[in-house]
Amino acid sequence: DDEILKAQSAMAALFRAQGKYKEAKQLYLEAMKVARKIESRALSNGIPPVFKELNTSTSSDKPLEIDISIINSIAGYAEILRKGGELWQAKDLHKKVRKIL
Q: For the packed helices 64-83 and 2-17, what is the interaxial angle rounded to 10 degrees?
């Protein structure tokens, strides 16, 4: 799942850079589903949440690059929403990313 999340985030960023917003949006949504799955698994192992609660806590059991992939997925999706005119939703997601950072 970790590698899938990284790959989906990278492909979504590429599509976004190419102006293929519909494709990027779909990949970001899929990446966030994978991120939630990773988060759920982490929570069941007693690792503090990053995605669900937007908490910046990390654990040595959960690599930092996964947290960054989650952040990139949220931020990328927010940018797609902004470019699509969904400004309030984009603003909300950007605020959540800033809380994580």
A: 30
Is 61:47 a contact under the CB 8 Å cutoff?
yes
Q: Which two tokens stand for residue 64?
A: 């930092």
Question: What pTM was computed for the model?
Answer: 0.69
Place of tokens 């990313």: 97
The rounded radius of gyration (Å) of the Cα atoms in the chain is: 13
What tens-digit pLDDT sequence spans the chain (101 residues)?
788 888 998 999 999 999 999 999 999 999 888 888 887 887 787 766 655 444 444 444 444 455 677 788 888 889 999 988 999 999 988 888 787 66
Beta carbons of 39 and 50 less than 8 angstroms apart: yes
| DSSP helix, strand, coil percent of the chain (3-state; round to 5) | 75, 0, 25
* 13/23 Cα distance (integer angstroms): 10
Cα separation, 52 vs 27, in Å, equals 19
